[in-house]
Amino acid sequence: MTQRPPIPAPPHKGGCLCGGVRFQLDARPIAANACHCSACKKLTGATNLLMIGGARDAFSHDGSVQRYRRRADSGREVDIARCATCGVRMWHEPLTAPALVFISAGTLDDPSWVVPASHIWVEKVSPGVLFQDDAIRIEGQPTQREVLFEAFARLYPL
Fold first, then answer.
1. Torsion angle of alpha carbons 62, 7, 146, 131, nearest 10°?
2. Are 136 and 151 in contact (CB under 8 A)?
């Protein structure tokens, strides 16, 4: 069984490389997901994007960001927030779900506890990527995000 560190109590703080943008999530995350789509690979320069999901009303930030609107293969649009100075991708906001924010785990001050409960676009996984034995795997983008939230709640009960 996958070893899962406990989730620390909020706030979950983070920021960009240059320090020009700082953010925090003042609530427990509702998802920990790895996306393996081609766009996330290009936008991060990594084999996938590991992110935590949370309530947007519990999220705040300081500093100047630039936004890039992207239409995913699923047809959904997201606004991707990057530092206006160093360009680090920090979070994205789905237009179809204005109550949510998805934070790039690598921009957290302490990402050591983030282990994905779900993986999406698994048919595009890069060689060498390992899946956790208890995480769900979804081809493409799920039609409903609730499946990601349910997977997280199952592995990280309150």
1. 110
2. yes
Domain boundaries, the chain: 12-153
Q: What is the CATH number of domain 12-153?
A: 3.90.1590.10
- How many helices (H) and strands (E) the chain has is answered by 2, 11
pLDDT in tens, 48-58: 999 999 999 99
- Contacts of range 38-41, beta carbons closer than 8 Å, 24 or more positions apart: 38/124, 39/70, 39/72, 39/73, 40/121, 41/124, 41/126
- 7-18 pLDDT, tens digit per residue, is 999 999 999 999
What does the alpha-carbon distance between residue 39 and residue 21 come to, in Å, rounded to a whole number? 23
Is residue 83 classed exposed, middle or buried when 0-12, 13-18 and 19+ CB atoms within 10 A define those classes?
A: buried
